[in-house]
Every structure is written in structure tokens, then in C-alpha cells.
């Protein structure tokens, strides 16, 4: 009787060990071979994974395309600019001594279509992309630990339209919340989220920012009606329309 129980227990132990080992090895193989498409969310950010994307051949093709899309003067390889776009003095993520933070190149698109074209190029040649707005966040997500293309929204900093009657405003991602409130102040309006000086609307949406007013007025998700989004493959989508309003009893889509 004892030997039979021992056999069953030993079989269960070996099977469990084999399963766990096999599963772990499969995960390690997956993240090593497919570093950009794996779904292993527990992979450490400092893990040195072989990079099978991009490469010299890809960059030889990508750089001329980026210059054609944004203009040669808006494609930057300056080492100081690359370093500035990869780190800030506030972020809580402290990279290891061998970790990379700077992107390969910084581009400055002027509109949604240019961003879409940049994303199509990056998608085709498997180049990582890092969006950059104010660069003031604490999370460390601006660090390009695999290099790639940094998309800086400095040229997309316009307040497109203010609809006072509907209490909404259309802005580009590079607009700062402080500049937006300066624009709204003269109209008797106010934009409550206040994550910190220098923050931009694009980054505030990306991080779901809050701030000192969140307890009373909510976080960023409570103040976004519609987004124009460029997906990883360059597809442009809108998440929603503006609110519907009434004119002479007739409902009209904004």
C-alpha cells in the first residue's frame, strides 16, 4: 500500500516538475525569439533579450523614408537630443549600468498623416516606436530600452477649436494643460487635470493622469470625449464622435 502511494506521489511530483519546467522554457524561448510579440507580461525590463528586429539593413531603408515623410530637418540624430528624449530627472525607473535609454532617431511629425506614415514604415521594418510629448512623466516609459524611433509631438501643439456651447475643445497631443487653461481662461472655462508642470495632453491621456484635483473632478479618463488614434500598423481610427447637440429641436451629430 505504501509503495503504491509513494509511486503515485512520485509520479505526480515528476509530472508537475516536467510541466513547470517545460512551460518556463517555452516562455523563455518565446521571449527570446519574439521579443516584440510575446505576451509574457512578467518579463523584466532589464532582461537582455536578443533583438531580432530592425538591424542595419532595416535602418538603411528606414532613414531615407523618415526624411521623406517629415522632412530632412525634422529627423534628428544629435546625441544630446537622443539622450534627452530617453530620460528625465523625475522618472522613478532607474536603468541598470548597461541598459539603453536613448532612441536611434527622433522625428518631429506635423500632422496625423505623417505619424501614420512613420508607423507604417516602423511596422514594415519591425522598428520600435516611442511617443514623446512633454517628457515629464515618472513612469519611465519614454526610455527606449530597445532603441527605435522617438516620435516627438513638439510641432503638434495647437488648440484646434474651442466649442464653448458644448464645453469641449479639440487639441493636438503636444498642447500643454497649462497652455490650454491659459486659452480657456478668457472664455470662463477650465480644464481640471493637473499632473504637473510641463505635461502635455498626449502624455496625460497615455498615462491616465490625475493630479491634485482628481478627488473632486476625476482623472484624465473623465475628460476625454474622443481620440484620433494611429495604430501600430499606421491605421487611423476615431474612438467616438463629438457629443450630439440639438438645433431647433433637431438632433445633429457633432
Describe it for me?
The chain has three domains: 1-43, no CATH class; 56-152, Uridine Diphospho-n-acetylenolpyruvylglucosamine Reductase, domain 2 (2-Layer Sandwich), CATH 3.30.43.10; 159-253, 2-Layer Sandwich (Uridine Diphospho-n-acetylenolpyruvylglucosamine Reductase, domain 3), CATH 3.30.465. Helices cover 35% and strands 14% of the residues. It is built from seven helices and ten strands. The protein has a four-stranded mixed β-sheet with strand order 1-2-4-3, sandwiched between helices. Strands 5-6 form a two-stranded antiparallel sheet. The termini are far apart. Mean pLDDT is 82; it is low at 36-41.
Q: Tell me the CATH topology of the largest domain.
A: Uridine Diphospho-n-acetylenolpyruvylglucosamine Reductase, domain 2
Order of helices and strands: HHEHEHEEEEHHHEEEE
Q: State the end-to-end distance.
A: 78 Å
Helix content bin? 25-40%
Widest beta sheet: strand line-up: 1-2-4-3
Q: Strand content of the residues, in percent?
A: 5-15%
Total count of helical runs of at least 4 residues:
7
Count structural domains: 3
Largest sheet: 4 strands, mixed
The coarse overall form would be globular
Amino acid at each position: 500500500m505504501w509503495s503504491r502511494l509513494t509511486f503515485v506521489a512520485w509520479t505526480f511530483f515528476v509530472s508537475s516538475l516536467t510541466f513547470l519546467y517545460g512551460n518556463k522554457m517555452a516562455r523563455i524561448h518565446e521571449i527570446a525569439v519574439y521579443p516584440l510579440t510575446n505576451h509574457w507580461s512578467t518579463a523584466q525590463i532589464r532582461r537582455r533579450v536578443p533583438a531580432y528586429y530592425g538591424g542595419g539593413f532595416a535602418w538603411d531603408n528606414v532613414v531615407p523614408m523618415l526624411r521623406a515623410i517629415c522632412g530632412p530637418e525634422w529627423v534628428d540624430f544629435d546625441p544630446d537630443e537622443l539622450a534627452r528624449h530617453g530620460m528625465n530627472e523625475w522618472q522613478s525607473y532607474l536603468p541598470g549600468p548597461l541598459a539603453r535609454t536613448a532612441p536611434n532617431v527622433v522625428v518631429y511629425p506635423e500632422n496625423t498623416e505623417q505619424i501614420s506614415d512613420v508607423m507604417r514604415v516602423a511596422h514594415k521594418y519591425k522598428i520600435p516606436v516611442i511617443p514623446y510629448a512633454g517628457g515629464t512623466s515618472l513612469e519611465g516609459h519614454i526610455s527606449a530600452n530597445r532603441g527605435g524611433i522617438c516620435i516627438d509631438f513638439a510641432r503638434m501643439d495647437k488648440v484646434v477649436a474651442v466649442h464653448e456651447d458644448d464645453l469641449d475643445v479639440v487639441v493636438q497631443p503636444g498642447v500643454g494643460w497649462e497652455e490650454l487653461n491659459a486659452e480657456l481662461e478668457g472664455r470662463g472655462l477650465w480644464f481640471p487635470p493637473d499632473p504637473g508642470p510641463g505635461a502635455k495632453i498626449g502624455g496625460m491621456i497615455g498615462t491616465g493622469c490625475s493630479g491634485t484635483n482628481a478627488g473632486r473632478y476625476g482623472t484624465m479618463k473623465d475628460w476625454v470625449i474622443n481620440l484620433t488614434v494611429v495604430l501600430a500598423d499606421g491605421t487611423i481610427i476615431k474612438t467616438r464622435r463629438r457629443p450630439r447637440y440639438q438645433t431647433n429641436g433637431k438632433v445633429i451629430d457633432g
